[in-house]
């Protein structure tokens, strides 16, 4: 287990952070290992590393249930299509607002359940119109610390670009400040990419040190327009 603080939720949760080096993408594997079926989800799988991910899932005796995306990725091909050809029972998941195809569409406030655990969906548009953040939860007790998978809404000490079609610096600022910075300060933040060697941050750290999002909204918009 990646970490264990002794609470019920932490004993249940198996967590792995996986990296795809060509696009500097993180894929996240989560499973409820206290459930006899060991149901698992993958967040932001990349087509090039699908075999690695599925071998790991097989070795750990997990049953992959959902292959989820935080948003439509501009820099790499999602692995969800390939996963479904190799494991036909797996359901792909993306936000309805993304406009992309999937087996299951999510909206703000929805929950994706795997065993006793779930991921709560928060709409965090701005990098793309359909970006969401997934936040860990447990049906019996709130895991502490929580984990938030921010996609490209928040990158450690930075954020996703806002110059794509459907991107908006105004909206991204609002999303991060209302949906991510309001989470408990010990919440662990896991982005979809890192270009500097970081792996994880916290709400407390990003509220204090994020080079873009700590600024006022007008300064943030200028940074995003001129970078
Ligand atoms: N130049 C970027 C690397 C490529 C890139 O554009 N990454 C996206 C996320 S994949 S859609 C991004 O939003 N990067 C943050 C940015 O501020 O451009 C880099 O080295 O950051
Ligand atoms: Fe992106």
UniProtKB/TrEMBL annotation:
Q: Which reaction does it catalyse?
A: S-sulfanylglutathione + O2 + H2O = sulfite + glutathione + 2 H(+)
One Gene Ontology MF term:
sulfur dioxygenase activity
InterPro entries recorded: Metallo-B-lactamas, Mito_Persulfide_Diox, POD-like_MBL-fold, RibonucZ/Hydroxyglut_hydro
This chain belongs to the protein called persulfide dioxygenase
Q: Identify which cofactors the protein needs according to its UniProt entry.
A: Fe(2+)
Main location group: mitochondrion
Where is the protein situated, by its record's location annotation?
Mitochondrion
Q: Which domain of life is it from?
A: Eukaryota
Q: Which GO terms describe its cellular component?
A: mitochondrion
Q: Which family does it belong to?
A: Belongs to the metallo-beta-lactamase superfamily. Glyoxalase II family.
What residue stretches are annotated with the Metallo-beta-lactamase domain? 24-193
Keywords, ordered alphabetically: Acetylation, Dioxygenase, Iron, Metal-binding, Mitochondrion, Oxidoreductase, Transit peptide
Give the EC number(s) under which this enzyme is classified: 1.13.11.18
